[in-house]
Structure formats: C-alpha cells, structure tokens
Amino acid sequence: MTDIRCDIDDKGDGRIATLTVDNTAKLNVIGGSAMDELTGTLRELAGDEALRAVVLTGAGERAFIGGADIGEMAGLTPETATVFITTLHGVCAAIRALPVPVIARIRGYCLGAGLEVAAACDLRLADDTAVFGMPEVRVGLPSVIEAALLPRLIGWGRTSRLLYTGDIIDAAKAYDWGLVEEVTTAEELDAAVAAVAASICAAGPRAIRAQKELMRQWEGLMPAEAIEAGVATFARAFRNDEPGVYLNRFLNRKR
C-alpha cells in the first residue's frame, strides 16, 4: 500500500509543501489508487495562494519512485491499460499545472513512472545513490506519456538510448546529460533542496508564478511567438505593486 503524505512548512520566508510517496517495502512504486491520491493532493495545493514551492520525494533511502506497480500492469487489458496510463499522466499533468515550481528530491531508484514524474517537475536534485532508467521495453512495453519530455532535457540521442535499451544510468551520468540539476552526497541533499527552495521564496511570488506559466507556454510556441508572449507577461507584471516593491528594495540595497 502506497501512502501519500503532504507536510506544510510555514516557518521560513514562504510556504513550502513536501509531498512524500511512501511504500518503502516496494521501492515507493505507485499504482492507480496512489496516482489518484497524488493527483488530488497536487490539485488541492494548486489552489493555495500562499504556496511558494513544492518538494516531491520518496520515503526512505532506497527510492524516489521505483516505477508503476507491475502487479497491477500484469492484469491490464487494452481498455484498462488506457485508464491506468491516463491516470499516471494525470499525476504528471498536475505537477506541470501547479502554479509554483516543483523540486524533485531524488534518492535511490528513479525508474519508469518515477522518471516520468521527475521529468514533469521543474527542477531535479539527486544524491549520489540515485539511478535513473526507463526499463519498460524490458517488460514488453514502450515508454510513453511524459517520456516525451525527456528530449528537451537530454536530447533525442540520449533519450533513444534510455528508451531503446532500458539501461540504467547513475547520478553522475544523469548530471552530465542534464537530466538533473545538482548531485550531492546523501548527507547534503536536504540542505541543497532547502537552498533552492529558499531562493525561490526570496523572489517575488507573483513573478515566480508568471515565470512558470510563461515557461509552459514557451514549450508550444515558435521563438517569435514565445518572445511576444514574454512581452505580454512582462507588461502584466506591472498591474500590481510587486515589481515596484522588489525593484526599490534592490535599489535601496545598492545605495
């Protein structure tokens, strides 16, 4: 049984939610019910106006998310397979739809569905025990849904290598490929995640939300359209006093 825990931290400069996937006996694998619970929790968090960032992680030291529940997948039919994989996509879509950045805190196995969830996050920080892979072809299935996000992170060639071979890569190679933004020791991981979250919280909250929304738009736009969208987003930022407050704070600090 996989539990989804949500812990809220209001002690720092801004509200941070930590979501933990907890099924340590089975490497934090997720089945349909856990996917539904995770999606529901993410959608609830999306409505929290005070939220500044989300950290997504797995319980224990052995896995972030070790994959989707193979026991459930073994009994799928074409009809139930559509429901199952759409439910998993719902988790990734809810992460991407959150109006604030989501940081994946990764230890141990990050495989299959786990790597798709990580790819849907805005930032990925791992410790040196982390390993990554898309082993679906080794159990007779193609990698689908948010595997489509991998080429923008690591390029088509490296994506092809992961998806065609099912090979697992270590944290050092994942960093070298651009799959993760930082690799630390296990002891340093929480501090690294906290530092990134603190930097996000130090920025203008409306600016961060506008930035994430704009970056999602960029994915589907040609460069000229993306620049136009940026101009409109920049102008909208001045509909409230946040730019004035932060710009004057910077100017006063310089003086």
Could you give a quick summary of the protein structure above?
Helices cover 49% and strands 19% of the residues. It has 11 helices and 10 strands.
| Average predicted local confidence, pLDDT | 97
Q: Largest sheet at a glance?
A: 6 strands, mixed
Q: How many alpha or pi helices?
A: 11
Fraction of residues in helix = 40-55%
What CATH architecture of the largest domain do you see?
Alpha-Beta Complex
- Can you tell me the residue ranges where pLDDT is under 50 for at least 5 consecutive residues? none
Oligomeric form: single chain
- Total domain units: 2
Write a structural description.
The protein has 2 domains: 200 residues, 2-enoyl-CoA Hydratase, Chain A, domain 1 (Alpha-Beta Complex); 50 residues. The chain is 49% helix and 19% strand. Strands 1-2-3-5-7-10 form a 6-stranded mixed β-sheet, sandwiched between helices. The protein has a 4-stranded mixed β-sheet with strand order 4-6-8-9. Strand 2, helix 1 and strand 3 form a beta-alpha-beta unit. Helix 1 packs parallel to helix 3. It is globular and about 65 Å long. The termini are far apart.
